[in-house]
Design a protein that fits this description.
468 residues, Rossmann fold, 3 domains, five-stranded parallel sheet, two-stranded antiparallel sheet, 11 strands
């Protein structure tokens, strides 16, 4: 959201905590107003509801990854995001009331009014929070001057963002580079001189921040500049060239106290892995119990629609690139595989798809047996969709970073699928786009993101045109 956008930075953490508290108080205040406006309700009755709502609201709305404050945005959260997050919060509150068997104590009029009014009060607070943040980070005392030494491609992108967004709190003055002609994304940032001239310039011109771009510059040229910066009060940031690592994302980390740049890593280590697994087991078990009658009806329908087994099983790649067997309700005729063993994806109007199978594919009901894969442990509810082994072997040679999607368990649904990348991947560009979304999910995983994808999956099922 700002110059202090690193997840581990205390500026971002503090800002997120403050915003979370403000949102939680707004949720409680809206409830109190609804109670006050209804003469049959009493404040004391809703104390437990207010407490649960405040706690859940704080957790949901203080997630730092949600903040994307730019000049084109006028709130911290869009109205759609607020409605979605509030719907989840309200569901938890209602579910807790149901579990404690105290639902009869609460006025339905108050609860309904609270449910409808809160998104609008949160929207107002979102606007006020952004105005406050904008004033805080763009004020004269907070804006910091900066120069760029060695104008690498990623340094140029950062400079362009500094020029466009006041929220970053950085005033870019110019750049130093030995190359006379540097493409600058049509920006007006001036070239201040060569790398050698940067040493004298920094010594005579106090500057708050110096960004040092890497890759294009020889160490012999950049070392004197870094040495000179030791004798200054400037903050120094190194900007690594992300394309050197093959993908456009690098994270900072530490291993045993040694700073490292992380290009590829799995988010499911330690506690995170157990939380993910617990969520998968509980959710999939609940789904299978609730939908057991539906599963029985579909099994009968598949059996009656065409000869062959009820389930279609196919080898896919799982976590670590290991082969797994994925189950689906059979939606096609039970034709023998071609002699060459090639697996052909379903296409629009595919004659192999049975009428009942077409309904199953369109509604995604054919995927339901994969919840058994989740319980078994070979799949997750949310993750990159598993591809046929033959497709993996084909695309791993053509799409850079393709196999990185196998650093996590494959999922029944995924970030790519809820962003329109579902169905046939008949072009290389479609597959590349799908991989980009899969890797985004791996880098930005959280339980809240999983829940968001699940909700969006339900919406996609009813309006997806890429299922056939």
């Amino acid at each position: 959201m700002s110059f202090y956008g690193d997840k581990s930075n205390h500026h971002t953490t503090l800002f997120g905590v403050i915003v979370g508290i403000i949102y939680a108080l707004t949720i409680v205040l809206t409830l109190e107003i609804c109670v006050a406006l209804y003469d049959r309700a009493h404040f004391s009755t809703f104390n437990s509801v207010a407490l649960v709502a405040a706690l859940v609201g704080f957790v949901v709305f203080s997630n730092l990854r949600r903040y994307a404050i730019h000049n084109v945005s006028w709130t911290i959260h869009g109205f759609g995001t607020i409605v979605r997050l509030w719907a989840g919060t309200f569901f938890v509150v209602v579910f807790s009331v149901y579990l404690t068997k105290s639902s009869t104590e609460f006025s339905r009029v108050v609860m309904t009014a609270w449910m409808l009014a809160t998104p609008f009060s949160l929207m107002l607070v979102s606007l006020l929070c952004r105005l406050w943040a904008l004033r805080l980070y763009s004020s004269k005392g907070e804006r910091r001057s900066a120069v760029f030494v060695s104008f690498s491609d990623d340094a140029q992108r950062l400079a362009e963002t500094c020029l466009k967004s006041k929220m970053l709190g950085i005033k870019a003055l110019g750049f130093f580079d030995n190359r006379q002609e540097v493409q600058r994304f049509n920006s007006t940032l001036p070239r201040l001189g060569s790398l050698h001239e940067a040493i004298e310039w920094v010594q005579h011109n106090p500057v708050d921040v110096v960004f040092v771009g890497l890759v294009h510059t020889r160490s012999a040229d950049i070392a004197p500049v870094v040495e000179a910066l030791h004798d200054s009060v400037s903050s120094v940031y190194f900007v690594p060239e992300s394309r050197l690592f093959g993908l456009g994302h690098i994270q900072y980390g530490e291993i045993a106290g040694t700073p490292v740049l992380v290009a590829y890593e799995t988010p499911f280590l330690g506690v995170a892995r157990w939380l993910k697994r617990l969520f998968d087991v509980v959710f999939s078990a609940l789904i299978l119990v609730l939908l057991s009658p539906v599963l029985a009806v579909i099994a009968i329908g598949v059996k009656l629609s065409s000869p062959g087994p009820v389930l279609f099983k196919q080898k896919r790649y799982g976590v670590g690139g290991q082969e797994i067997v994925v189950s689906k309700f059979r939606s096609m005729r039970n034709d023998p595989l071609p002699q060459n063993g090639e697996v052909k994806q379903a296409t629009v109007g595919d004659a192999r798809v049975t009428p009942f199978g077409r309904f199953l594919r369109k509604s995604s009901l054919d995927e339901l047996p994969q919840f058994f894969n989740v319980l078994e442990g070979s799949m997750s509810i949310v993750g990159p969709r598993p591809h046929a082994v033959q497709h993996n072997e084909l695309y791993r040679k053509q799409v850079k970073g393709y196999m990185l999607r196998h650093k996590v368990k494959p999922g029944i649904t995924g970030w790519a699928q809820v962003n329109g990348l579902r169905g046939e991947t008949d072009t290389l560009d479609k597959m590349q786009k799908r991989i980009e979304y899969d890797l985004y999910y791996i880098r930005n995983w959280s339980l809240e993101l999983d829940v968001k994808i699940i909700f969006r999956t339900v919406a996609v099922v009813f309006r997806d045109r890429n299922a056939y």
